[in-house]
């Protein structure tokens, strides 16, 4: 089974994806980490995030062993990732890696922005997670502070809104729900409630399939 989870920054989709994968015994890929790793490689080389050749080279040379690097988690790296991810040739260079990950048995949960629309359009279940931007900013602020980063909630909210606008308006693979995605509003749910709601969606889709 392949489950696609898309949604805006800090909507809680990553945590949901990880816990859903555990629940169903599937592998999990946080695809945001891929774009963050590309952005970090470009910045580490002292180059500009809009340098297409450098970003494509970083995408082609991607090393999954670096995905656990804590430097990838920062708010600044998320914004940098949003810039490199708008370059069409960078996205093209990363499609195959993601599809191969999804296709390997026993299946996977992938979370990102374009999983249900571009990477895995045939995923059995597609969930689009939404949450109030103010709630998202609050969660991101607490997360950043728990890592020991100084975090100003108003700055994070502005960053989230700018990122939403960039991710939604880019010409290639913009952030949007697939036509057959199920919306999950995570604004008022705690982690357990979110996972319960996601499992309910997966089970409803499976039950519908087995009836048809
Ligand atoms: O999910 P995240 O915050 O780690 O993602 C960081 C940025 O990477 C996000 O603002 C846009 C980009 N991204 C993307 O374009 N496509 C994906 N599938 C995942 C992330």
Report on the architecture of this protein.
The longest helix is centred in the C-terminal third of the chain and has 21 residues, at 191-211. Helices cover 56% and strands 11% of the residues. It has a five-stranded parallel sheet with strand order 2-3-1-4-5, with helices on both faces. Helix 3 (52-60) packs parallel to helix 5 (88-103), helix 4 (75-84) packs parallel to helix 8 (153-169) and helix 7 crosses helix 8. The protein has one domain: Rossmann fold. With 212 residues, it is an alpha/beta fold. The mean pLDDT is 95. The relative contact order is 0.21. Bound molecules: 2'-deoxycytidine-5'-monophosphate (DC). 2'-deoxycytidine-5'-monophosphate binds next to helix 2, helix 4 and helix 8.
In brief, what are we looking at here?
With 212 residues, the protein is an alpha/beta fold. 56% of the residues lie in helices and 11% in strands.
H/E element order: EHEHHHHEHEHHEH
The poorly predicted ranges are none
CATH topology: Rossmann fold
**Biggest pleated sheet:** 5 strands, parallel
Counting helices, strands and paired strands, the structural category is: alpha/beta
The number of domains is 1
SSE order and pairing:
Layout: E1 2-6, H1 13-24, E2 27-30, H2 31-44, H3 52-60, H4 75-84, H5 88-103, E3 108-112, H6 115-119, E4 125-130, H7 133-146, H8 153-169, E5 182-185, H9 191-211
Parallel strand pairs: 1-3, 1-4, 2-3, 4-5
Helix pairs in contact: 1-9, 2-3, 2-4, 3-5, 4-8, 7-8
The chain binds 2'-deoxycytidine-5'-monophosphate (DC).
């Amino acid at each position: 089974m392949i489950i696609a989870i898309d949604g805006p920054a800090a909507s809680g989709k990553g945590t949901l994806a990880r816990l859903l994968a555990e629940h169903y015994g599937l592998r999990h890929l946080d695809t945001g980490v891929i774009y963050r790793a590309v952005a970090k490689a470009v910045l580490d080389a002292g180059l500009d995030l809009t340098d297409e050749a450098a970003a494509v080279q970083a995408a082609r040379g991607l090393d999954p062993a670096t995905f656990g690097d804590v430097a990838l988690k920062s708010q600044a790296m998320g914004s940098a990732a949003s810039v490199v991810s708008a370059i069409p040739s960078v996205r093209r260079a990363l499609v195959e890696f993601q599809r191969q990950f999804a296709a390997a048995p026993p299946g996977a949960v992938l979370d990102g922005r374009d999983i249900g629309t571009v990477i895995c359009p045939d995923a059995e279940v597609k969930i689009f997670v939404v949450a109030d931007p103010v709630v998202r900013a609050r969660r991101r602020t607490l997360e950043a502070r728990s890592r020991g980063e100084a975090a100003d909630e108003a700055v994070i909210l502005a960053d989230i809104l700018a990122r939403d606008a960039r991710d939604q308006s880019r010409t290639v693979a913009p952030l949007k729900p697939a036509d057959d995605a199920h919306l999950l509003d995570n604004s008022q749910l705690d982690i357990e409630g979110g996972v319960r709601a996601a499992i309910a969606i997966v089970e409803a889709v499976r039950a519908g399939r087995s009836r048809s």
